[in-house]
Amino acid sequence: MKTPDRFAPVEAALAQAHQNRAVPPPSPGWQKRVMAGLRLPGAQAADEATPLFVYAAYATTALSFCFVMTALLAGWHQPTDSLAWLWLGDASSIQTLLLTY
Amino acid sequence: MIINRSSGSRPFRLPDNTTMNAAPQESNESEIVRRVLAGETDLFERILDAHRNLVFGIVSRHVPVQEVEGVAYDVFIEAHRSLAKFSGQSRLSHWLSKIAVRRCCDYWRGKGRRREETANPLDARQTEWLERLAAASSREEFEREASRREAEETLDWALGHLGEKDRMVLSLIHLEGHSVAEASELTGWSRANVKIRSMRARHALKKILLQTLEKKT
Predict the structure, then answer these.
(1) Which of A5, A11, A23 to mutate to test the interface with B (most CBs of B within 10 A)?
(2) Reported pTM
(3) What is the per-residue pLDDT across B172-182, written as a single tens digit (0 to 9) for each?
(4) Do A23 and B41 touch (CB under 8 A)?
(5) Complex ipTM over 0.85
(6) Is B118 a residue whose pLDDT tops 70?
(7) CA A55 to CA A59: how far, in whole Å?
(8) Residues 30-69 of A with CB under 8 A from B
(9) Which residue in chain A has the smallest CA separation from B42?
(10) A18 at the B interface (CB within 8 A)?
(11) What distance, in Å, lies between the first and last C-alpha atoms of chain A?
(12) Which of A24, A99, B99, B161 is the most exposed place for a label (fewest CB within 10 A)?
């Protein structure tokens, strides 16, 4: 014999209670408060401009990419011949460069 | 069973004197939105008039009654601020519904889980109500019990055990009868996420309530 599901009527009653929740009417001054709130700074409807830091992030990424690519192409295989290693801050290669040139 | 789990479109229940037809025509809506964006802020009041009852209807089912006005206020302020993002592809009422659902979720996130409520067991009156309901043998008996005040109190107590996302998904799917797709669109979460959360939240709710019943018997 199938065990009766004790949860089913409870769930149904809770759903009914949820659907029957009272909807309070807005108080008389509510709409005016909303309209006043719209005029506060920060609530203005406008096309939101892309924040500056987003452009800064794009620029940093692009520069980093260029820097790494330059370092690779300019002589990753020959550190002493390349200014790339100077950029990377390798002290020994700086010394080598100075001695070489 | 009373719960409607149909997969068809099921709009939010609106207050008695309001229907979706009360919203401005789509072309009017677009025109109003365009003009508000152009700086005619006062015109936003027409949007407020047309959709106030819809927003109150949604919010009142997800936050305590004393908080409804505050959350509804936030919904319209956010709607106004992000009006430029309204694409016009869907109806304004639908777009506002999504903002309202997300704002309700934010409300519970801000409040955190109400531990004091969770820690307290159901009081004797509510536990007895649960027992009577579980033992109801006729439709009339069930209806009588389901319409009692204890139903809402027990519901609030049980939902207090869930996190804000589980609570929202459970309310939308199991208590209001929205489909997974609709709940996914309203919340902005993936369908898989909604489906898993809904199953998990229902299981948690079942466990909480059945444990209460078993303790008593």
Answers:
(1) A23
(2) 0.67
(3) 998 888 899 99
(4) no
(5) no
(6) no
(7) 6
(8) 30-31, 33-35, 37-39, 42-48
(9) A35
(10) yes
(11) 95
(12) A99
